[in-house]
Amino acid sequence: MTNSIKLFDTPLKISEVPYFESKHRRVSAAMIAQKEVGSISNCLACHSNALLGDFHGTYVPNYGKIDD
Ligand code: HEC
């Protein structure tokens, strides 16, 4: 993942990391704006198993299960 970051171009936000961006292309502004989510930094809203280190089986509130 860090290989995709150019030297002297270190992103300050995880949402600007190329790997993160490519994984979240299907996430729309409307999905994030919902009261259940609020921010792309609210990982747990969509990744309920994130505390277990599991980011698969993503469930976006009101949109349902989304898989790659
Ligand atoms: C609005 C909902 C939403 C939020 C908030 C969100 N994600 Fe995701 N995430 C997704 C979707 C949809 C996918 C693509 C489907 C999938 O891979 O399960 C995804 C994919 C991923 C993947 C790749 C999983 C894979 O199967 O390859 C990782 C890692 C990930 N997200 C981490 C994060 C982290 C860390 C945060 C918080 C900083 C976050 N996500 C916030 C919806 C979200």
Give structural notes.
This protein is α+β, with helices and mostly antiparallel strands. The chain has one domain (12-66). 22% of the residues lie in helices and 9% in strands. It contains 3 helices and 2 strands. A two-stranded antiparallel sheet has the order 1-2. It is globular, with a radius of gyration of 13 Å. The two termini are 17 Å apart. The mean pLDDT is 87. Bound molecules: heme C. Heme C binds at residues 14, 23-24, 26-27, 31-32, 37, 40-43, 45-47, 55-56, 58, 60, 66-68.
Radius of gyration: 13 Å
Strands of the largest sheet, in order across it? 1-2
Q: In total, how many domains does the architecture comprise?
A: 1
C-alpha end-to-end distance: 17 Å
**Which ranges are low-confidence, i.e. pLDDT below 50, for 5 or more consecutive residues?**
none
Q: What's the main sheet like?
A: 2 strands, antiparallel
Question: What is the average per-residue confidence, as pLDDT, rounded to a whole number?
Answer: 87
Listed once per kind, the bound small molecules are: heme C
- Assembly state: single chain
**What global shape is seen?**
globular
Helix content, binned percent: 10-25%
The total count of helices amounts to 3
Give the secondary structure arrangement, pairings included.
Layout: H1 18-23, H2 29-33, H3 43-46, E1 58-60, E2 64-66
Antiparallel strand pairs: 1-2
The structure holds heme C.
Task: Write a brief structural summary.
The protein has 68 residues and is of the alpha+beta class.
Characteristic key phrases:
68 residues, alpha+beta, 22% helix, 9% strand, globular, binds heme C
